[in-house]
From TrEMBL:
<dbReference type="InterPro" id="IPR011008">
    <property type="entry name" value="Dimeric_a/b-barrel"/>
</dbReference>
<protein>
    <recommendedName>
        <fullName>Antibiotic biosynthesis monooxygenase</fullName>
    </recommendedName>
</protein>
């Protein structure tokens, strides 16, 4: 059995939508954005925070290297992949992602 590479990089994307559109965006984002990402990244987590005036979504994908992430983005690992309907759903289009080096993992989620 081939050993899976360890995650060394986390790529964090954030986007906000209006509360009445949040459920629809969550479903759309999963189908159009998360499902294809699952096959490329080592792991993917999605988060949602419902607030008074907006709902924020965060997607964290895990990668073995900056190079692996760059292959996914087609060059610049900070490049955003806007989905076809993001303009329709999101309050503003995110202009960047956050890239963090994973230093340690503890507990049951590691």
């Amino acid at each position: 059995m081939e050993k899976q590479p360890k995650a060394k990089i986390a790529r964090i994307w954030r986007g906000r939508t209006l509360p009445h559109r949040a459920d629809a965006y969550e479903a759309y984002n999963y189908e159009a954005g998360i499902k294809p990402l699952i096959d490329k990244a080592l792991g993917v987590q999605t988060f949602r925070e419902d607030r008074g005036n907006d709902t924020e979504f965060m997607t964290i994908s895990y990668w073995e290297s900056i190079e692996a992430m760059a292959r996914f983005t087609g060059g610049d690992p900070r490049r955003i992949h806007h989905l076809d309907r993001d303009r329709e759903y999101l309050i503003e289009l995110p202009s960047e992602v956050q890239i963090l080096e994973l230093r340690t993992c503890h507990g049951k989620t590691s």
